[in-house]
Specification:
Layout: E1 10-14, E2 17-18, E3 31-35, E4 44-55, E5 58-69, E6 73-75, E7 87-96, E8 112-118
Antiparallel strand pairs: 1-2, 1-3, 3-6, 4-5, 4-7, 7-8
């Protein structure tokens, strides 16, 4: 039987508000929180911040920061989000036995699994 090893994080929030709907006025250094995955055990989390820009073909999403933690919360550092900008967050739960994302953020081991949760649009 094939089954997922890991599911996405649950109940992601920014500045105390759910991330499943667009959020304005979150500030330039908001706190992001989430609950662990329902399936599996995450050994760490990666939060990628994407800046959104209009283009003739739609919207461009450019990754401007990747933050890693073993906790279920993270404060976006000052200087990442700019007033007037529009962003989305991709919160990735990672399960990599023996890896330590806090000490060695770009290493992994097998078996490896990840699951993403992409937020709605946020503005500072």
């Amino acid at each position: 039987m094939i089954a997922p090893r890991l599911s996405p994080v649950r109940e992601p929030r920014i500045a105390g508000a759910p991330l499943d709907a667009p959020r304005d006025g979150v500030g330039t250094s908001p706190n992001v929180t989430w609950q662990p995955p329902e399936i599996g055990t995450a050994t760490g989390y990666r939060v990628a911040v994407y800046a959104l820009d209009a283009s003739p073909l739609g919207v461009n999403a450019t990754r401007i920061a990747t933050l890693q933690t073993t906790a279920t919360s993270l404060q976006i550092p000052t200087g990442v989000l700019s007033p007037g900008g529009s962003y989305v967050l991709a919160i990735t739960a990672v399960a990599s036995d023996g890896a330590d994302l806090a000490a060695q953020p770009f290493s992994a081991s097998l078996p490896y699994a990840s699951a993403d949760h992409v937020s709605a649009t946020i503005t500072p």
